[in-house]
Each structure stands twice: as C-alpha cells, then as structure tokens.
Amino acid sequence: MSDLDSQLKQLRSTLSKMEIALSTVEECIVWTDGRGRIKWCNAALERFFGQTRLLLLGKSLPEKLPLLLNGQVVADEFHPVMIALKSCKNGKQCYEYSQSNQYLTLEIAWSFVEITNNFAQSDDSVSSVLVLRDVTRQREAERRLQEVNEALEQQVAKRTQELQEANACLQTETVQLQKLLNELQQTQAQLIQAEKMSGLGQLVAGIAHEINNPVNFVYGNLTYLKEYGLDLLHLLQLYQKHFPHPGKEIEKVAKKIDLDFLQTDFPQLLSSMEMGTERITQIVTSLRNFSRLDESEIKAVDIHEGINSTLLILQHRLKATSEYSEIKVIRDYGNLPLVECFAGQLNQVFMNILANAIDAILESKIKQISEEINDRSSNITIRTSAIDSRWVEVVIADNGTGISSKTLPHIFNPFFTTKPVGKGTGMGMAISYKIITENHGGKLTCFSTPGMGTEFIIQVPVRISLKKKNI
After folding, report:
1. CATH-assigned architecture of domain 2-134
2. Each residue of 9-35: pLDDT tens digit?
3. How much is the pTM?
4. What is the DSSP string of 320-364?
C-alpha cells in the first residue's frame, strides 16, 4: 500500500501542477463525466460564467451552456459534449452563445476520454474534455475584413469596368479621329485636285476665249475674201477674153507669178483656209464644253458632247507615232435623253477613265514591243445606252494590260496608285467615284481581266435628286 500511496501522492502533485498551468490558459477547459456533468474546469471557465468552480461542479454542461447553430437552438443530444460521449470521436465546431444580451461566437473542440487503469472508478471510465475559445472578435474582424474585401473587390470591379468603358470610348474616339483624319486628308487632296481642275478649266476657257475672237474675225472675213477673190479672178478672165494679147510687161509678170496655176490654186487655198478655221472653231467649242465654267450648277446636258470634248483634248495621245500605232476609239452611242448633272464634274470623270485607258494601252504596247509581239490593234470602246426612263449608262472599255485581282478592290481608294512616283497622285479614280456616287447618286463599277483589258461602267440617274442639288 505504501507504493500505491506514493503513486497517488505523486499523481496529486502532478495534477496540482497541471491545474496551476491550465489556470493561466485563456481558453475555457472543462472535463465532464459520462453523462455530461462538469467534473472539473479551469479558471477561464469560472470567469466566463462568473461563478466559482464549486457552483459549477456537477452541473449539466448542456443546461449550463445552451448553444445555437446557424440561429437555431442546439438540442441536448446534439450538444458537443454529448456528441463526444456518444460518437467517441473528437471534433470542433463554432456555435453561437447568448450572454448579457449579446451573441458570442464560441469555437468548441471536444475530445472523448476513456480511462481503463486502476485509478478510474466505474462511472469515470468514460468522460469528455471540451475546450471553449471566444472567437467573437476574430470572427467580427474576419467578417469586417470580408466586407472590406468585398467592397474593395466591388470597387476594383467598378473601376475596372469604368476603365474598360473609358478604354472602349477612347478606342471609339481613336477610330473616329482616324476616320476624320482620313476624311480630312481625302478632302484636302480632293480640294487640291478640284483646285487644279478649276485652274485648268479657267486656263482652258481663257485660251478658248482668246482664240475664239481672232478665229471668229478670220472666219467671218474669209467669206468676203473668197467672194472678193473669185470676183477678181472672174474680172481677170474677162480681161484675158477681151484682150488676148497683152503687152510684154504684163506677159512677163504673168509668167513670173504663174498666173494659170494661181487661178487654179487660189480657190482651193481659200477652201483650205475655210476648213482650217472651221476646225479651230470646233476645237474652241470643245474646250469650252469641257471646261463648263458657265455650268457649275446642275443642268440638263448631252453626255455625248462631254465625251466628244474629252476625246478631242486627248486626241494627241490617240494619234499614231513613230513608236506606236493609232489608238482607235469606237463610239457606240445610243439614243440618250438630256441628263441633269454637274457637267464639268462628269467630264472630269470621262477624262480620268479615258486617260487611264490610254496609259494601260501604251503600257501594253511597250510589253508587246519587248516581247516582239505587235499583232493586236489598240481600241477604246465607248458604249452609251438608256437603261430605262430613269437611268443612263456609259461603258468605257479598253484592251490594255488589265488590272490584277489583288489590285482591283483598291482602285477607288484615295492615294492608291500603281503608277511610279511622280506619275500619279492616286486621287483620280477616288474623286471620280465620289463624283458619280455621292454628287450624282449613281454607280461606278470596274471589271478587268489581266492581259485582256478593263471595263468601267458608269450609271447615273436622268434626274438628280433634290439632296444632290444642294451639294
């Protein structure tokens, strides 16, 4: 028995030391018997309930510590102490506990304890140990931190959305500014081109006007000159008839001036001068028709006049040279009504397309010469027709080099050109497209086969809309 007493004494000393150590722990520690009654607790539990250990020992822990889980009262059989005793397992769970009109959050860890040595009495062989820790402030801090995080995430999401919207607006504005810049560049180039055409038109009109006055003077006086000359010749013939034997001096002069040839050639000379002045008059009229300075507003005109005037100006490029054969122009004109249009602008379109057609044919001729092939004639075909009572069509086709499928979609783009630097501005076809589609409400399309030629189809309404008239 002395050994047992010694062991009990040693055990009590150890328990006393353990109790002193556990009394300093902030967590509440409680030991219950097999029916959930408090057998021992540390000082922290006394402070938690505000009662001494003597008042707590023997009390039912489920009754002394009623708990709530997710706002619902926890039944006694589901109390942590009963879970430990019935399941014989360890566990941990957070519960709510009402104290002094406030809810605390308790983190409760439970352990099942079974003592099988000789020191345990029969009703103490099964027990449980619970550790309670008040995590109210921690959970509140976590909740607030969560709220702060959520608020921060919302702010970040809102700010991100605002930045995305601002970025989208910025991209939209950038696209619009780029579009405006392109339009400004196109407008600037078109204004420059229009100014050039206006200057050219004024120059052409001025030259035509200056030429017109002396030509009209010459042409008008040729009639009288012809009449006077023929009268003098008739009088000379009468003198020869009635005085067949003139004096030696007259015969000498007649022989010197070759009077017989003069009488035969003089009428022909007058006819040639008359034809020449008529031709100059036609050229002046064509130049004035092409410039159309007196017709800047919409006016019903004969489209064929505009085409013919343009061809007359380009006549020097169509004629045969020492290097190239003649470029034949085939006119297949239909019966067209007068068309309301900006005549000068429409003539500019004809000029651009016909000039490009001549360039393509000359390029084709250079290629034929380099390949020693010269068996194909050079033709530009112009067909006009009335589609119906509201639309007319002009087709200008050439048998030049043609346009590749890669290049064809870009020919109406501003500043696009396949010509060498300094040979083209890339605005001719772009301006032509704008004149036909925007200024006249028509259509301008192009079809081409490389090596075979190109065909431009111009379609314009016979009556221009009121909207276009306000351009």
Report:
1. 2-Layer Sandwich (3.30)
2. 665 666 566 667 676 678 899 999 989
3. 0.49
4. --SSS--EEEEEE------EEE-HHHHHHHHHHHHHHHHHHHHHH
